[in-house]
Structures are given as structure tokens and as C-alpha cells.
Amino acid sequence: MAEAPGATGDHSPWAAELSQTLSRPLAALQEESRQARLEALAGIREAVLEPPWPPSVLEEVFEKRLLRPLLRCLVGDPAERCRELALELTRQGLSRGAQPSKALPFLMPALAQRLCWPEGDGEACEELRLGLLQLLGQLLRSCEGEALAPYLPELIRRVRLDLPFFSILEHFHLQSESLITPLMQAISHQHYRVRVAVIQATGVVLQFGNVKSLDDVLSHLAQRCFDDIPQVREAVISVIGEWLLHLRDRYSYFHKLIPLLLSGLTDEMHENKELALTYWKKIGLQWEKENEEDIKDKLDFYSVPPYYPQGLTRPELGCRELVTRNLFKILPGLCHDLTDWVEGTRIKASQLLVVLLQHVEDHITQHMEPLLRTLYRVCSDEESIVVRNVFYVTQLFSCVEALIEICQEDCKEISLQLTKILITIMAIPPNLGHLHVKLEEAMNTLAEVQHLAGTVNLYQQHIAQLMEWLSLTHDRWTCYSPELLQLDVIATHSGPVIGEALEGFMPILQTCLQTSIDPRVRLKLFMTLSQLLQKPNETVNSQGQFCNYLEIVIKDILAPNLQWQAGRTAAAIRTTAVSCLWALIYSELLSPEEMMSIGGELMPKIIATLGEDSKMTRLLSCQIIGTFLDSCGKQFDLAKIYPELLNRLEDTSHDVRLSAAKALTSWFKCIDDDEKKALLKNNIGFVYEVLLVHLDDPDQNIQSAILDTLKEGGTLYPDTLAKEIEAVVHKHRTPTYCDQLLLHIESTGWRYSES
């Protein structure tokens, strides 16, 4: 009895019947006669395709009986018609039930062999090559990725070799865009061989497809320049090099492709460097030939400039011209990458910049403004490799030194420009620490050759122009603006001269310290202002004019920035703002009358800063509150002040606790009439209670400070204080301080027996 349709197994009667039918034509495939082989193939097609065989039967017979004989015919039959029929039967067999993945070990070697033309003895007939590639496409659509993965490199190579010989290139051009998305999805595959194959395939697709797709792949290829595997980076170099040599409309894409290839010149693998250099020389020479008339004079009068660095090989003229003519398009993107948040991108960009500068030589002068702005910012980079790659300032400083030495008195004509350059170099953060002494010496020398008494007089000569120079852009500063650092140098190095420039200096501060400005900008400026206010009479108040700007400083600058905002930078700003306020108070720039006028607005903000994480902020806030209480305490709502001060007695900082105790002493002094005393009676009692707890502090200095505070406050309600002492004295380690406190309040006229 025959099995039901669809049954499988070696003993299936249907499979046995089909195998028996195929025995004769399969044997005839070995005949020498072309006609006999054609008849055999026709018999196979008739036996397999015409009866309604179940898929399971066809699958079994195709895999076990037909596949290998058909592939032998496909690979080795000399007759084109026989190979065509064998290919047709193979495709039909795969589409009618066979599992293509099981056939891959036999199919892929056969396809590789037939698709190797013109490398070897492969298929020369274009129609058959098209059929073979269609079979390959059928396999790609029907097989899973894991099954194809081992054959992917060979598969891509075969497709790449065949593309130049297609008679359907125009059709491929129209369809090539559809390949870009899947290729880019696979370009970051975890297996490096797959990444290499995808890059190579991308090269071919763009070479013979729609070049407009280039913009869609460049960012992906740029990422592969950072690949950990050298073979992947090598593939990128090869693809970009081929594009620069052969891509249609390549002139339109030079500015996008050149940076990727030149990045290969700094590859850590010597082989990749050599490959990139080989391609680059070919590209330069090809460009020279294509533009010979345009550069004839430069070719005829070739000379190496005398300033060219020793040890460097000058690039060919074509290479230099290519970079020079495309630099204006390359530089903006490069400047962006130099400040990218990814460290690897910044390093790669800085390495590329060195290569570009070597090519453009003195043509870089027309691009100096955007480049220098970026370099100022990059010189403060945390990554030393990046800084080293842009470390042009040493040479710049040497030029300034040479000018001063040679020109002497004539430097007066360019004194402002030289001063700006020296200030700019001084503004570059600590990476240039070794130059700072020489820079100070150069500033002094520049002053001496002009018969000025010193650096201060040099600043005095140019201070108005320097402030005007900086104020041109101050409303657009970011934390990376070089002007921010230049202002710091001018303000902190000019000594008393900055006091003569308040008319230009203060508007910059007023604008850039608004709370809408980047917190990092505000922090830097507050640090500058805080430093100046440490010795105001030697800096901002050297001419006694700073008092004219106190209202701006307090109301427009300090008060808004004391308002709480989230973030570490905002906290640091509050610290420097508090520091500035304390400096104003400590230096006596604020008179008691002025403190009276600003106290009402500032006191709530200062009280709020008592809870800051910064020890310095808490300490200075306690001191400011104490000073406000001493100067104008009568105007404040005292009930709102003492709770935060009591909390600071629990502070982790010894100094903060001492300062809080001192401020509480000032608080008691403000209660100087019977009305206030009666109103705050309960508050005073609570303060007594808390202070007596801290009177037993393990630290003797704290005990002494609390004792002084209680002595001051104890005169308000001595009876209440005495009762509190009696209630806690037995809990103290020693009654010494309690006894001293009782003796003190008795000495003021109060008697314990009367209590």
C-alpha cells in the first residue's frame, strides 16, 4: 500500500518510484554525445516536474539523487544548452520543496567556480551568468542568515567581480539604492569578516550604482575608521581609495571622501598607513594629469619652501592641491569633531588636522579665524593626545619673542596685537604651565622696549582697546569661548588697571552673569570676580569707583545667582556668589547703610544657602548672617533666622559650628527692647534648650563658643535659663560650664534664690 502524499522516509514507495524513473536519464548524463545528455536532462525534467509529486518526495529525491549530478553538469558540461537546462532544473528543484540551506555545501562551491570568470575557467555566457546570479538571489531570499554566514565573504567577492560584466548595469543603477539600507544595518555586525564583506559590497554598489547614496553611507564608514579590527579599517581605506580614483562625479565628493582616506595615514597599523599612502599618491597623480593645464606653472616651478619642517616628506602637488581646494568644505566638520563629546572622535580629528595642515601649508592663513577659535577650546581638552596634536602655541610664542627681539622700539606699532596674542596664550589652561613664566617675561620685555615701567603699564596703555575687543562678542559667549579666558587673564593680571576699566568691564559681567546664561560661563566669571574682590582696593576699586556699581553687583548679579537651582555647577555658582558677597562685606566696600538697604532682599537667600553641600558656602553664609545681624539686625524677622543657625550647630564642620555659634550671639544682641523680648520669649527658651545640649560638646572650643553665646543670651530670661541648666546639668560630662554660666548670670544682678 502506498503512503499518503507528503509522507517522508527512505522507504517511501513514491520516492522509490521516482528514483527508479530517474535512473536511466541520470546514467545518460555521462554520455559523450551532446544530444544524449540533452535528452537525459529533458527526461529528468519530465519525470520530476510533470506528475504531481508530494513536496516531501521531491525534497528527498532532489537532495539525494539529483542535486550533485545536476551541479556536475552545471559546472563541467561543455554544451551551453546542457548547462542551461541543468541550471533550470536546479532552480526548479529548490523552489519545489527542497530545503535550500541543506544544499548550500554543494551549491556554493559550484556557484563560486562558475562565477569566477574572468579570474579563471568560469561561465563565459552572460545569459547563464545572469541565471547563476538569479539562483544566488533565490538562495539569499530563502536561506536564513546563520546558514549563509560562512559563505558571505566569498559570496560578496563573487558579486563584486561580476558587476563590471553585467549587461544590465543600467537596471542595477536604478535598483542599487534598495541595497543601501540592509547593507548599513549589517555594517556593524559582530563578526569582523561580515563587516569587511559589507564594506566591500558597499564599495561595489556605489561604484556601479547610484552615487547619490554616498551621503547615506559615509557616516557609517566613518564609524568603521574606529573599528578595533585592522582588516575592517583596511577595507574602508580600500573602498574610499577606489572611489576617489574611479567613482562617477567623484569631484563633487572629494571634500567628503578625502578626510576618510587621510585618516588612514594615522592608522596604528603600518600596513594600513602604507595602503592609504599608496592610494593617496595615485589619487594625487591622477588629479595632476586631469588638471595639468590648470597647474602648469606650479609643476614647472616646483620648489620646497625653506621653512618646511625637517624629517617630513612633502606631499605631491596633486595631493596638496586637492586638500587646499577642498579645505573650506572640510574644516567646519573637522572643527565640530575636534570638540565632539566622544574622546576617540576628538583624537582622530586632531590627528587629521595635523595631516591637513601639512598639505595646505601657508594657505591655512585664510582659515585662521574659525580654526584658532576651535584650537583655543581644544587646548583645554582633558585628553593629552588631542592637546599634543594641536599644540601650535609654542611656535606662535616663539614668533612673538622673535618679533620683540628684532623690532625693539618699533614694536610700539604692533604692541596691541602682540599683547592680544600673549594674553591669548596665557589664557590656555594648565597644559601650558611650563610657558607661563616665559610669557610673563615676554610681557615685561614688550613693555621695556616701549620704555614702559612694567606689565601693569602695558595693560594701562591698551586696557580700553582690550575691553572693546572682548565686548564685541560677550553677549554670545559659551563656556568654550576663548574670550572668557582672555577676560580672566586681563582682569587678574592687570592689577589696579582693571579699576580704570570698570565702564567696559562691569557691563560684560552684568550681561554674562544673568541666570539665563550657561552656568559654566557664570561659574568662570564668578571665580574671576571673587578673586578680584579678595583685594578690591588693589584691583576693581583702585580708583575708588567700584561703589558706583555696587547696586548692579548686588541686585543684578549676586541676588539672582543665590537662588537655588539643581546641579553641581549651580551649587558652585552659589558658593562663588556667597564668596563675592562676603568679600564685599569683609573689605568694607559695603557700608552699614548699604547693608541695611540690601539686607532685606539678600537675607532669605543667604539663610537658604546654610543647607548647601559645600562647607565653604555654609561657613561664609554663617559669617554673612552674623555681620548682617551686627549691622542692621533690627530690620529682620528674627524668628525666621535662628532655626537654620541652630541646625548648623550639628554641622560636620568644626568651623561652621563655631561660626553658627557666633552668629547666634549676634542674634541675641538684636533683641534689645522689651517688645521684641516678649514676642520671642518662647523662641528664646527653645534656643536655650538647644544650646545647653551643645554646651556638653566633646570639643572644648565648641563648648567655649556656646558658653559665650549663652552668656550673651542668658541676660534676656535668666530664670528660664537657670531652670534649663538645672534640668540638664546631671546629664553633662562635667558641670563646669553650667556652673560658669550660672556664675555669669548671677554677676549680672540675678540671684538664684530669687528664681
Automatic annotation (TrEMBL):
HEAT repeats lie at residues 641-679. Keywords: Repeat. InterPro entries: ARM-like (IPR011989), ARM-type_fold (IPR016024), DAAF5 (IPR052623), HEAT (IPR000357), HEAT_DAAF5 (IPR056497), HEAT_type_2 (IPR021133), TPR_DAAF5 (IPR057978). Pfam families: HEAT, HEAT_DAAF5, TPR_DNAAF5. Residues 29-298 form the Dynein axonemal assembly factor 5 TPR repeats domain. PROSITE patterns: HEAT_REPEAT (PS50077). Residues 307-390 form the Dynein axonemal assembly factor 5 HEAT-repeat domain. This is Dynein axonemal assembly factor 5.
